[in-house]
Amino acid sequence: MPFDPDDVRIDLSCGIGPDGRWHGWFTVHVHTDALRRLGLHPDQPTAEITHPSPPGWWHATAERHALRR
Question: What's the predicted TM-score (pTM) here?
Fold first, then answer.
């Protein structure tokens, strides 16, 4: 793994959602110095979402093509 144990923190949360069911989620935090060692940094233009994700049909088609091979 490219990260030291102290470079990554994972927070787990859970609670009752608006629908009355329990939900869980986690957040991953990576220390910025660890990202810089990999050549990544928050000032890179690719570190931000610049356009919306492709539509759902695009992902489904890509998965179908991958399974055919």
Answer: 0.48
